[in-house]
Design a protein that fits this description.
about 550 residues, alpha/beta, 15 helices
């Protein structure tokens, strides 16, 4: 389908000239549609972000987790095989919201706030006539002037301080702007944060419907980030699945990935169990520092039962997100907004290994892991608890890839990504295999919204976007132009160019510098060919160094 027909199908008026991305004074795509007459109706936008969801967790990516509502969106939309991210929650969120690399946003690794010379999706879309709503986790600025309603969002419910909050504590969650009376009230007996986020999304959709303007809804869940917490009635039906253990489930996921067409050639390999990253205090790594995750069958039954509960709680958190998406989709249908709402679903990074195969309890990095038995098992994930599920389950969640969040190997930076838009897509239920990046979300959404990317905002000269619009991939056979993608997170780094991916790990038992993979033949990074191609290593290393300096991608620490 050509560009003219695509725009007409998406609800745009007839075009007077072909689509053309405008190049601004800084030389970057400003993601506005030139030559397009005034739109009959611009699309609504629903952007759903998971927190620490693994590559293969969703059913439509091969997982056994119950996600029927998301799977339906995938079936009638597009699934991307290689959407990449910035390896950790806050840098990925900063990139998602701005179209910039983390260092350019003021959040190069962990912590910090968005800088003044960038604009958020909320700001850019708001200036273009959109209502803007944010529900859930912010994590890109907590001080005055950097909160969601300071950075372009009209309405907010969720938490803006910290990387996680207790799912059972309503006082940890806030309604902004200050002074706004909460539309929904909770007490401890009827509060669960994931469900509350879904509730407020529905509330904001009702508010948006009363106004004659398109809307942008950014639903950023904190699930399934630790602490893994969920109602026991949601956890119990999932326990038998996870009593099978991570080895059998990894094999089953990989077979399903073949069946659904994600795995499309023999170069895809189910990698070995990933190593547990090195810890100076081996207690934090459950005694497995620098060693591979153990086989499931090697563990005693009481440990297996504790671990099955941890993973079932994680899965239940995802299930609650999926149930909320089902309600949101039904609301859109009831409102008559479903056809012309573009829905994107993705995760901010790969699954989280923190910090060993048995997970932890209580404060992160305190080295406490409790073995729960008997009646204690039923209380896991409930009020007053704080658990993580550990590196071996995270390895399952990232099937078939190696490693995890914090790393720039595939298990850390490749995320599921679904695009659903009945009015804008005429060829659906297909895989898009271009390498894409979370920085591409902003230019894509500005593109379909016909919103301009500002050169100046609130008196600051704005950095040009780094991402590109993905609308070419919305058409059958549409391909992105070749480009180089770079990554950096606390000493982990990577560069992708053409068929080559070069990656530098961290916290390995033995120091390893640049590894080189032919990711066309070897998409799971199983055969390091750096010694065979020293000229490629040198060239890509120099290119990565130039990117690091240009984008202020500085490393801090080694955790």
């Amino acid at each position: 389908m050509n560009r003219r027909k695509f725009l007409q199908r998406a609800g745009f008026a007839a075009v007077a000239a072909p689509f053309a991305g405008h190049i601004n004074a800084f030389g970057a795509n400003s993601a506005n549609i030139s030559g397009v007459a005034e739109a009959a109706k611009r699309p609504n936008i629903l952007l759903v972000l998971f927190d620490d969801l693994g590559y293969s967790d969703l059913g439509c990516y091969g997982g056994e987790l119950p996600t029927p509502n998301i799977d339906k969106l995938a079936k009638s939309g597009l699934r991307y095989t290689h959407m990449t991210n910035s390896a950790r929650c806050c840098p990925s969120r900063a990139s998602l919201l701005t179209g910039l690399h983390p260092g350019q946003t003021g959040i190069p690794n962990f912590g910090g706030s968005l800088v003044d010379n960038c604009v958020t999706l909320g700001e850019a879309l708001g200036k273009s006539g959109y209502q803007t709503y944010h529900v859930g986790k912010w994590h890109v600025g907590a001080k005055e002037g950097t909160r969601p309603t300071d950075r372009g969002f009209d309405e907010f419910y969720g938490f803006y301080r910290g990387y996680a909050q207790d799912q059972w504590e309503p006082d940890k969650y806030h309604r902004l702007p200050e002074g706004r009376k909460p539309e929904i009230t909770y007490d401890k007996e009827n509060f669960y944060a994931t469900d509350a986020f879904n509730d407020y999304t529905l509330e904001f959709l009702d508010q948006a419907k009363k106004k004659d303007k398109p809307w942008f809804m950014y639903l950023a869940h904190s699930s399934p980030h630790f602490p893994v917490q969920a109602p026991y009635e949601s956890v119990k039906p999932l326990l038998d699945t996870y009593r099978k253990g991570w080895d059998k489930l990894r094999e089953q996921r990989f077979e399903r990935q073949k069946e659904i067409g994600l795995v499309n050639h023999d170069g895809w390999k189910l990698t070995d169990r990933s190593l547990v990253p090195v810890e100076n205090n081996n207690k934090i790594a459950n005694g497995y520092s620098g060693e591979p995750n153990p086989s499931w069958d090697s563990l005693p039954e009481d440990r297996q039962e504790d671990l099955a509960h941890r993973m079932a709680i994680y899965a239940a958190m995802v299930k609650h997100v999926d149930e909320g998406i089902g309600k949101i989709v039904q609301k859109l249908k009831d409102q008559g907004e479903y056809e012309n709402t573009i829905i994107m679903v993705l995760s901010d990074n790969g699954a989280c290994y923190e910090w060993g195969p048995f997970g932890f309890d209580g404060r992160s990095r305190a080295g406490i892991t409790k073995l729960h038995k008997g009646e204690e098992l039923k209380k896991m994930g409930g009020p007053g608890t704080h658990h993580a599920y550990g590196s071996a389950w995270a390895n399952l969640c990232n099937t078939p890839f190696r490693l995890y969040k914090h790393f720039t190997h595939q298990g850390g930076i490749v995320t599921p990504f679904i695009v659903h838009w009945p009015a804008g897509l005429n060829s659906t239920d297909r895989w898009v295999r271009d390498y894409t990046h979370i920085i591409d979300v902003m230019p894509t959404l500005l593109d379909v919204a016909k919103a301009k990317y500002p050169r100046v905002y609130n008196g600051s000269r704005i950095q040009p976007m780094e991402g590109v619009s993905l609308t070419k991939t919305f058409e059958p056979g549409g391909k992105l132009e070749p480009r180089t993608l770079c990554y950096n997170h606390q000493k982990a780094r990577a560069i992708i160019k053409g068929k080559w991916k070069m990656v530098w790990g961290k916290r390995f038992p033995e120091p390893i510098e640049w590894e080189l993979y032919d990711i066309e033949k070897d998409p799971c990074e199983t055969e390091n060919v750096a010694d065979k191609h020293p000229e490629v290593v040198k060239s890509l290393s120099n290119e990565w160094q130039r990117w690091k300096v240009r984008t202020k991608a500085q490393s801090r620490g080694n955790k």
